[in-house]
Amino acid sequence: MRRFVISVVVIGLLTVAAPASAQGPVEGSVAVVEPAGWDVGPCPGIGWVGTLDISGHGDMDGTYGFQLYHTDFGTDTDSVMVDDWWRWSEYFAVHDALFELDEEGIVVDCEPGAVVLQGYDSGVGSLALNEFWDTGYVAMAAGPFEGLEGAMTFQRGYFTEFIEDITMPDGNAYPTAFEASFRVE
What we know:
By secondary structure, this protein is mainly beta. It is built from 1 helix and 9 strands, in the order αβββββββββ.
């Protein structure tokens, strides 16, 4: 009987101490654009803004503001091209309010509400294949995402809009929008 009680207590403690990602993955979809004038507007450094939509996850359900910006500035493209593969590192933040763009496509408010999820990721993409992947981790989680600190993030998507007049080093058009799946586990 004593071993049974100790086993139950240990299992209970492990369950309480398990990371939030043990609840199962939180999945959503991302749709973002590179805002016009991102390097000269009121919010320099924000490379992409858009939405993260989550459903089927209780208190986390909703549409959030989503932002990305590169953390590896210093190259001509703010990322690195290696053998036609685009590699980058970036910061992401999820806000409890949506980003607003003016009629010219410039971000109006750099922080539209509280940050409820943020972290860093690194990725690789192929413009020739029109596909990308990245993995990262959650550095801070608040509100409905509280307890997800340290969880892994995964994103996979496709570029949806391009500027044909601007080409990347691999000769493909410069991407200005993408859609992706976003998962935290």
